[in-house]
Design a protein that fits this description.
This protein has helices at 3-15, 39-46, 52-63, 105-114, 127-144, 149-155, 157-181, and strands at residues 22-25, 32-38, 67-71, 76-78, 84-86, 99-104. The protein has 182 residues and is an alpha+beta fold.
């Protein structure tokens, strides 16, 4: 990873507190080339409102390559014969229904500047490197631990509520689709 990308990731990590970043791998999967954070986590960490200005600024970052959108799954269904069909209305639905938007470290820092949120630079504090290592270790421990839904609900109640709402909505859609096919 190039120095400037790593420096930006370390600086952005302090802004994001203990919200661990998602690594982005090279095309061969051999090395990390960048880090990113979920757009909603960034907004909450920067304490800015979800409004038209936020959406505009995030869209600008996406156009500059400082954010990326990833589909969870292709917008398709299959009939009884196994033939694939594109879901006709998927382009009219909010993107959030179909995937996630992530902000790269440089995008997080750019938003901090645009919203006047100060942040510490690597050259100003050697403690930033220690903070980076701490968050990386915590993140690795979380990912290696077995999934415990009760612990998740206790430690991350807001995320659990959102997750349960997402599951209920997709179950409802699944049931509606299954009922329409009969």
């Amino acid at each position: 990873m190039e120095y400037e990308t790593m420096r930006a990731a370390i600086e952005a990590q302090l802004l994001m507190r203990h919200c661990g970043p998602s690594p982005h791998l090279s095309s061969d999967g051999a090395r990390i080339v960048d880090y990113s954070w979920d757009v909603d986590h960034v907004r909450q960490a920067l304490h800015v409102p979800l409004d038209a200005l936020w959406d505009e600024r995030v869209l600008e970052l996406e156009m500059q390559g400082l954010a990326s959108f990833c589909l969870h799954s292709p917008p398709v269904t299959w009939d009884d014969d196994g033939t694939e069909h594109e879901i006709p209305s998927w382009r009219d639905e909010p993107r959030e229904e179909w995937g996630t938007l992530s902000l790269y470290a440089r995008g997080v820092l750019r938003l901090a500047e645009l919203y006047g949120r100060p942040y510490v630079r690597v050259s100003e504090s050697p403690a930033l490197i220690a903070h980076w290592h701490l968050v990386e270790a915590e993140s690795a421990a979380r990912h290696s631990a077995p999934y415990d839904p009760e612990k998740r609900a206790r430690e991350w109640p807001e995320r659990e509520i959102l997750w349960q709402a997402w599951l209920a909505e997709h179950k409802r859609r699944w049931d509606d689709d299954a009922g329409a096919g009969n």
